[in-house]
């Protein structure tokens, strides 16, 4: 996904949907790892007194290639063999990592941002809640 404008709109919408659930002093930075083939990874860091800033990093060939440049514990081994579709969510420490494997605008819309926030805030099914 190399449409910087669409990515930025998604980030802004994601923040807008998440903000009502955060204390006023909590900020959300975003590092964007775009992929040339399709998709991108959005690494949101959440914390007290963090300013809402965005950083677009150089494109990698694939989303799995971008994933290898991110410190994370969810996936290991040869990441080149991973193929991602839709939106995948990884939450570690003070970060939300969204792995968006497709360029289809439906995954980058305001509706998608709202749905992604809902997925993050809702308890997982099967955990007894």
Please give the structural blueprint.
Elements: H1 4-18, E1 26-34, E2 40-48, E3 54-56, H2 63-67, E4 87-92, E5 95-100, H3 110-121
Parallel strand pairs: 1-3
Antiparallel strand pairs: 1-2, 2-5, 4-5
Helix pairs in contact: 1-3
Task: Give the biggest sheet.
Answer: 5 strands, mixed
Oligomer: single chain
Mind telling me the C-alpha Rg?
14 Å
Proportion of helical residues: 10-25%
Strand content: 25-35%
Structural class: alpha+beta
List segments where confidence is low: pLDDT < 50 over at least 5 consecutive residues: none
Largest sheet strand order: 3-1-2-5-4
The tally of beta strands, per DSSP, is: 5
- Distance linking N and C termini: 36 Å
Shape: globular
Q: State mean pLDDT (0 to 100 scale).
A: 86
Following the backbone from N to C, one meets helices and strands in this order, namely: HEEEHEEH
Tally of alpha and pi helices: 3
Number of discrete domains: 1
């Amino acid at each position: 996904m190399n449409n910087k404008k669409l990515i930025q709109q998604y980030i802004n919408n994601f923040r807008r949907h998440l903000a009502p659930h955060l204390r006023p002093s909590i900020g959300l930075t975003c590092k964007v790892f775009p992929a040339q083939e399709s998709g991108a990874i959005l690494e949101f860091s959440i914390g007290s007194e963090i300013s809402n800033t965005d950083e677009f990093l150089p494109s990698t060939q694939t989303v799995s290639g971008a994933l290898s440049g991110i410190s994370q514990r969810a996936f290991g081994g040869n990441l080149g063999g991973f193929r991602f579709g839709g939106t995948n969510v990884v939450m570690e420490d003070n970060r939300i990592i969204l792995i968006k494997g497709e360029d289809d605008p439906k995954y980058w819309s305001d509706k998608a941002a709202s749905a992604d926030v809902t997925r993050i805030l809702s308890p997982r099914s099967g955990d007894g809640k």
